[in-house]
């Protein structure tokens, strides 16, 4: 039955096993549950993800969110965290130890890069950086017997570069993990291409209303169980309040994302003709170098675009000051259109050379397209860009 449901239907029907006949999930705002005695509590304390023991181990509201994400991703299970970085950090530390090796792509969110270059290296986990857009790059960097994890991000933040999911999924030996935040589970399902783990900052498009901070990793049940065993100790547990908002976001994900995706492509096309714009990056554009790959593996185009302003950082400053409908902010995936200057916000932790290596210029702005009228957004963005 589940395999026959469309993504739109899954978004509405998934994650309902904990709510009985209620149309909305109950909020289990509790940290702990009463047991029936010593033997019962011992069973819960030593079991895997006991539903009614202690919320750091599991919580019914959080569990409903996890089951919904697993359903949308087409995986056996999922595990929620207090943030996307909580999901990434817990997963890496669950799978890697001192002396292990990680292969990671250069084109990714700077917070992930900082985590791999900082805490991971400090704890003796080596990292090799590769160009994730080049087929074969991940497999070539694997050290047999040493590489435990290959980490990718696609579409990448902020230029929306793509990784060939089939190429990533074919890497033999280490576990493979991809940050699929900018696609959401309705934009792509990496597990279908053989990728072991799919991680999201659900704070973004999945929740979709800028009112929850949440991360999640999805994959095969036993592997997720192994990550859970470490995550309980790491303690980056998801809040049931945020999980409730995450479930609410999932219910409208299909209609939101479809509208935002369509609007993003129209805006990207329109801005290419602006005299103050040097380049527009969006894989839905027919002349984008990875357009064919986007058509092959994305079921919905991204809801973002990146714009290189000809006037550099001064033009970016003037544009952010001149916005009337869109808003300067660093997040994405919500109902409001948000514009951020990547070099001084999402990727400020990278030095100039590292920024340049992944295509971040002084004039690069990332636009997360919201639900406002498309023509009005084009007019607003266009009038704010200096010529």
Structural overview:
The chain is α/β, with parallel strands linked by helices and 387 residues long. It has two domains: 2-251, 3-Layer(aba) Sandwich (Aspartate Aminotransferase, domain 2); 254-384, Aspartate Aminotransferase, domain 1 (Alpha-Beta Complex). 37% of the residues lie in helices and 15% in strands. The chain contains 14 helices and twelve strands. The protein has helices spanning 7-13, 38-46, 60-73, 84-95, 110-122, 137-141, 165-169, 221-234, 240-251, 253-271, 291-297, 312-322, 352-357, 374-384; strands at residues 77-81, 101-105, 126-130, 147-153, 175-179, 197-201, 215-219, 277-281, 304-309, 327-328, 338-341, 364-368. The strands form two sheets. It has a seven-stranded mixed β-sheet with strand order 1-7-6-5-4-2-3, sandwiched between helices. Strands 8-9-12-11-10 form a five-stranded mixed β-sheet, with helices on one face. Helix 5 links the parallel strand 2 (101-105) and strand 3. It is globular and about 75 Å long. 50% of the residues are buried.
